[in-house]
Predict the 3D structure of the following.
Amino acid sequence: MQLVTARAASIGSLPVRRVLPFRERRAVGPFVFLDEMGPVDFEPGGGIDVPPHPHIGLSTLTYMLEGGLHHRDSTGASQSIDPGAVNWMTAGHGCTHSERTEPEKRARARTVHGVQAWVALPPEKAGIDPSFEHHPEASLPFVEIGPLTLRILAGEAFGERAPVTVHSPLHYVDVEASGDQLLEVPMELGERAVYPLAGESRVGGSLLEPGTLVYAAPDEALEVELEAGARCLLLGGAPLPRPHFIHWNYVAWTEEEIEAAKRRWADGGFPETDESDFDG
Ligand code: MN
């Protein structure tokens, strides 16, 4: 068991808790990056403005709890992301994307709260073509265990499989408790972690403070006690086959690929994100 404490960071005007990577915990299964965005209260006029930037070697997994944002990328996707939907952009050999608050939402005060994870592509798939998938909340499977509702956001767990096209064995699950319940997270899921989103959850009797992730190795039991009103995220999967490289927005299996991506971005060699439908 390992405790990871998020550090405060920001993406433009958006405060985030950066959970992964952590010095001594670079990945949980294929999850190599985890940011909790907000919760932040925006005044009218305020919002998220992350301009186009590049990625390689990973899939971004964006899941909003409150508020939303608009995703555009170089595959041509232009998608409003509302709470509960799963958005999965695979960068493969390279793409760009932007994330912005929609002009009509920007006019009103609002709370924004969400999670963005990066999932490393396995070595044999790191160079695949970029793609984007949007799966609305209603298309996602869920499982009920006593008073718990487990939404399977990506991968496979608890006997259900999410529709998103994943490239290695993984699970990403949103658990909500309407009553007190002990949840065993099965060892067969590989490396596992629990991250609290709301309310009170405990592992081994210790309260999970906001911004704290608990990691369990493939051979360690993981049991989470959720109280009524608690919500937490489960994530993990098969361990990565070997140490990966991560630099800025790039994930790769060799340092040369990271260096090539840096040069390519400096030289304007990444495909462009069309933002002509953005009038903010
Ligand atoms: Mn990005």
Summary: The chain has a mean pLDDT of 96. The helical segments are 103-106, 255-266. DSSP finds two helices and 25 strands in the chain. The pocket of manganese (II) ion is lined by residues 53, 55, 60, 97, 249 (CB under 6 Å).
